[in-house]
Amino acid sequence: MSRHGNGHGSLGAYFAVFTALMVFTALTVWAAYQHLGIWNTPLALAIATSKAVMVALIFMHLRSSPKLTAIIVATSVLFLGFLILVTASDYLTRTWVPIYFR
Amino acid sequence: MADATHAAAPGAPPELRHHFVDMEAQKEASALGMWIFLVTEVLFFGGMFTAYVIYRASYTRAFEGASNLLDLRLGAFNTVVLIVSSLTMALAVWAGQQGRKSLIVLFLLLTILLGSTFLGVKVIEYRQKFVHHEVPGPHFVVPLDEETHQPLPRQSEMFFSLYFCMTGLHALHMIIGIGLLLWLVARARRGEFTPRYNTPVDMVGLYWHFVDIVWIFLFPLLYLLGRHAL
Lengths: 102, 230
Prior knowledge:
The complex is a heterodimer of chains A (102) and B (230).
Chain A: H1 11-32, H2 40-59, H3 67-91
Chain B: H1 23-58, H2 60-67, H3 72-97, H4 101-131, H5 156-189, H6 199-223
């Protein structure tokens, strides 16, 4: 699947992704006005991630790219996760331990 | 094997650099390099997203109130514009694979038009922020909450700092992208892209879609976070 230049990216798939992106944009605006408590942001991020995955797989041909490309993309997501999680584990937990207020 | 690396094989396509076995290997190397560049871009934007996560978690009310002062209609319009531009970019890449010169130029020009529309709307939005003294700095005036008409917490200025940094960096990427697209139009008009060689269209396409993905995350995180409170 990975070693053929032309075949990837059919017009049908492009228009299907385009339609899905439009629907998901409307969905995320609608969802933002719902009272979901703490779930508003996770839902918005889930919708955004779905949109990003569709763009990457179809528009950016990740689906028909060599496995090495997929590994590189996964690595970038992993390290972005490290960056945010490790930073948050410092800043957002500072008030948990009363040592700072001595 | 060793001596074959220095001279192109007879009958090799003129676009093929001598150190690649064939056009396909050359294109895969280009794509790999472009993806690695995009990884560095993920972490470039990632620093700002991290700052956003920390400050939003620390000053939730200020961020939600300040976010509601952004123009949702303009933001949503721009989201749609950018998605359509991603479609036209994908179609330009598709036309490039078939070497259809006039179609490549058409879709590239459409992408440029949509990208410029996005930036034009961004100018209108930025202008509104300057008029309302919502730009961080000496002229910043703490805005009133949309709903309660009480002043927002002071940290609303922090939201606008992040808003301008993140959308500004994104807009800079759009401007560079439009420059690259103009360069592609010139090359396409010279008939440089054929079914055998269209790598530059493909690579700029990857860049353009990446910039679209960044906006896909910026839009809900900047425009939508406080709407449920309205």
